[in-house]
Fold these 4 entries.
Entry 1:
Amino acid sequence: MEKQMNRGLPQTDSIQELAQFWDTHDLTEFAGELEEVIEPVFERETIVEIHLSPKEAEKVEGIARHRGIDSADLIPERVSEKSRSL
């Protein structure tokens, strides 16, 4: 029995599924379906180091704990909120 080949590009955002697909396919099989993408597909996050006093860090952790989120998620959230009001 001949294995039926997948003739379309996968429509998924799953990195794992895409990796599995490209492990078994060659890009040249899809040359007619490809289009050039000019804008970035994946935006890298910018890492910013901040220095907090022990008291400030304790306060941030307390607020995050009260909200049920990680303190590392609280800070970008607050920065985003404040930047919208500028």
Note: Confidence is low (pLDDT under 50) at residues 1-6.
Entry 2:
Amino acid sequence: MKTLGIESTECKALEIHVGYSILTAAVAPEQKARLSKDSEYYLNFRTIIERDANSVHSLTLKNSSLQKIAREDFTALMQEKLAKKPHILKSLLPSFSVGCRRLTPGPGYLEALAEDNVDFIDTPISFAQGRSLVLGDGEEKELDILVCATGFQASAPPPFPVTGTNSQTMKEKFEPYAETYLSVATDGFPNYFMMLGPNAAIGTGTLTTMMEMTGDYIIKCIRKLQKENILSMEVKARRVKDFSEVIDRYFKKTVYLDQCSSWYRSNGGKGDRITGLWPGSALHAMECLRSPRWEDFDYVYEGEDGQGECNRLGWLGNGWSVAQIDREGGEIAHFLQPGLVDIPAEPFPEDTLMFKQRPFSY
């Protein structure tokens, strides 16, 4: 495991969840100061983390070599932390694959269970009464505080009313589970775009960058609406169905449909459809959202009455370039300027260095 250039002698406490592993590193105040002031050092720090997170996507695939290694490592880690009470491991060790449920470092949790002043009881609870719990075997446990971790409904529609065409609500649309197009739109709801909607989260990789890409995608749609005098833009129902078929096909080979309950799934975490995660890696999602497929949408333009079409090329304007009109900020010889000249590699443009680093896309 890389140490990110952080020396152990600078140790305070920092836990970074990288891929499936937990890196315990040392960060002193001077270390934080360097990260904030030394841009190259900070870039190297971030790059190592992001590369590591994006390199473990095979962890999410059933029976992959990385999945087997991860399970062995996690089991060994749990054995180590529960050494004082090894009998607890049998109750806590999951039967499902690593990643079926969301991973969490959980610092101190297993260590706390192994303390002498903690009783680990795995007998099912029958009911609560007064100040106590009655267990399945009839034993009664008196409590000072009862903490209920009930979870949350991640696949729920927006908490505010959203009504689309034909008076259909989003709640009705998302029954029995949510279906979208690339997690950003759904049919029946023109001009409605979503961030962190159904199937927008990620199993491995960076969610924040995916959110940025989604924001860029939505902005491109808004600019198209504005520039081309479009009244409404609605994804085609067939494309929503296509994305659902991609989701169903993809997740069959992953660990997410193992026998576990998680917020990734429909029906309160117990359904057989994944509604929380993107069907692929974070890098895959970024590439898919990079360039909108305008042909996947239906449009209604300003001036159309439902029977005929207006001039949909009205955006061509008066024949002048903005650069010619705004001479103060524009450059009317921009095609010669360094940084704007695109010289592709030979024999194929996808061999250009930029496209080697970031996949070539139409």
Note: The CA atoms of residues 268 and 326 lie 56 Å apart.
Entry 3:
Amino acid sequence: MKFLVLKLRNDSGRPRRLSATAYVEWVLGDQRAKSAPTVVTNTDPGTGALFACNPYSTEFADRVAFSTLMT
């Protein structure tokens, strides 16, 4: 698990806009190259969290990975 906290302070006194982007390469199997084509993702409409699973993997079929950004 990786947990990151990004804190910024605007000392300019002027309004600013900010966007943050996350990039994830799901490896829900023993090798990314083999498992990547069978990873299935969906989003939770309530939280915006991104979920990923690999239902075609015999070893990892019951596992779920997630990524989310909180404000």
Note: The longest strand covers residues 40-43.
Entry 4:
Amino acid sequence: MIKPRILLAEDHPLVRDALLGLLGELGKVVGAVRDGQALVETAQWLKPDIIISDISMPKLNGLDAVRALQNCAPQSKVIILTTYQEPAYLTLAFDAGARGFILKNTALLTELPQALLHVLAGDRYIGLGVKGEWMPVDGGRVPIQLSRT
């Protein structure tokens, strides 16, 4: 099996370094950027299979970057990796074109490989711990695990 080409967008250096180590075991990391504008520019050039992106980033937030990527790098599938647990962010991410949504505070050693497998297979992936019930996405409904805190 060919390892997917992965581009990471994360503005926090410690988180970025930790993710690079993990992602290197799951695929070929072709780049890492620190802001949404660099994500869009780099994705056009590198044409990765998978993009792992934070939402909160300088210059261009991750959701706006995902929207831009739909036009300039449509072959790349985006997985949002964030601390935002609210269901509105999941809806916004999927409406922008993301294919996966996982939380940074989950067991990323198991979540990221699962997310990559599902998204590469053409499915959507919603990580554990996302709050909510059913949220409309692309005219349909996506089940979200209900968690109480």
Note: The longest helix spans residues 13-26.
